[in-house]
Amino acid sequence: MQSFPDHSFSEIAENAEYSRKYTIGDSEYTALTDVFGDRSPLHVDEGYAIRSGFNERVMHGAILQGFLSHFIGCHFPGKRSLILSVSVDYRLPNYLGDEIEILARVRQKVETGKVVVLGLKFNNLTTGKLSASGKILVSIRDE
């Protein structure tokens, strides 16, 4: 059985930062395309994407959301987490093979409901640019 981080509400400090790296691989791209059926030409047709001004096929924004779900549930805060809301602003496209670092900073702790507000950055380490940013509200359940 896999072991998950277990950050309790009381041990989480405001302004603390947590990060993890992910790579947009064939498996993530194929799984999202197959499961959800989003075959927009921007995502699946290299020629169309290039004619539209991009370097190659643009990866689905939902891949970042998948990485974020993994980050919250399996990295920080961990197994006690329940996502309440997510807001992501996409700034630049991501491409197959890009390495993405999710950086989360604890902006606020709300005692009522044991909620943490995290500021998010999705740094594209391949390009050295910010791909997306946003915030997420996460409830930290008692064990």
Can you characterise this structure?
By secondary structure, this protein is α+β, with helices and mostly antiparallel strands. It has a single domain, classed as Hotdog Thioesterase (Thiol Ester Dehydrase, Chain A, Roll), CATH 3.10.129.10. Helix content is 24%, strand content 36%. It has 4 helices and 5 strands; from the N terminus they run βααααββββ. The protein has helices at residues 26-36, 41-44, 46-51, 61-74, and strands spanning 17-23, 81-90, 99-110, 115-124, 129-140. The protein has a 5-stranded antiparallel β-sheet with strand order 1-3-4-5-2, covered by helices on one side. It is elongated and about 50 Å long. The two termini are 18 Å apart.
